[in-house]
Amino acid sequence: MSSAHQRQMSRPRKESAMASTTPTSDKYDEIDDFINATVTQEDPQQRQAVADADAAGLPHIQVAPNQGKLLQLLIEIMGATRVLELGTLGGYSTSWMAKGLPSNGELVSLEFSPKHAEVARANLERCGVNDRVEIRVGPALETLPKLDEEGGDPFDFVFIDANKDDIVEYVEWAAKLARPGALVVVDNAVSRLVDTEPDTDDPASRAIWKVYEVIANHPSLDATAVQTVGHKGHDGLLFALVTE
Predict the structure, then answer these.
(1) Backbone phi and psi for residue 184, each to the nearest 5 degrees, phi listed first
(2) Per-residue model confidence as pLDDT tens digits over 35-53
(3) Residue among 24, 78, 9 nearest 239 (CA)
(4) Is 220 helix (H, G, I), strand (E, B) or coil?
């Protein structure tokens, strides 16, 4: 464990003035339901995309609706026209981000599993955004160098929601393929920190600990992370701005 980590973990937690009314996990779920029923505005085609992914046996690990809407809004706020996604799964998060793009926008999504890609393509067609999405099948660490070799326009926004063992390499590639001013968002960036230490034997958890150190010392990234609660449990998102 680094000395910085020891100092942070040894600091006493401040008592919250609202500690006596801290919501239970059930209440967090109820609040998520309220948010999703009002401002999130998930459409029926997206709900069906989740149902079809479940029916096909895909793992139920897609982003929550309000998190998907956050990705859409970030893309719209930035005026992004080119988006890179690592980890398509059933295309649910892909559909949200594609909705944030203009009609001439492009989203390149990398997916390891041909089965997942097949389900995602059908879902994206149903959602009416397939014309903006290209799914590339294969290991991301093989596909990313090919994107670099193609020499296309840099990406404005990168969402990383793939296997965590290779998260450090994914972030390095994101910084390389994105333009200055682009935003990189990493999903599931907190939950593995709860029950592990930096020297854990679990490769995925060890990689999550490491990616914080890598980003903190990266010459081209400025970042923070936020903890989240709700239907996805206790987790968080890591946000990194590409500065040069």
Answers:
(1) -110, 125
(2) 999 999 999 999 999 999 9
(3) 78
(4) coil
Q: How does 5-37 read in b/e, with b if 16+ C-beta sit within 10 Å?
A: eeeeeeeeeeeeeeeeeeeeeeebbeebeeebe
Q: Taking CA 223 as the corner, what is the angle to CA 193 and CA 228, rounded to the nearest 5 degrees? A: 45
Contacts of 144 (CB under 8 A, 6+ apart): 110, 170, 173, 177
Structure tokens at 156: 């404005």
The pLDDT confidence band at residue 17, using thresholds 50, 70 and 90, is very low
b/e sequence 176-197, b meaning 16+ C-beta within 10 Å: ebbeeebbbbbbbbbbbbeebe
The CATH superfamily holding the domain 44-242 is Vaccinia Virus protein VP39 (3.40.50.150)
- pLDDT tens-digit profile of 203-228? 999 999 999 999 999 999 999 999 99
Res 25: pLDDT = 84
Cα–Cα distance, 82 to 87 (Å, whole number): 16
Domain ranges (residues) in the chain: 44-242
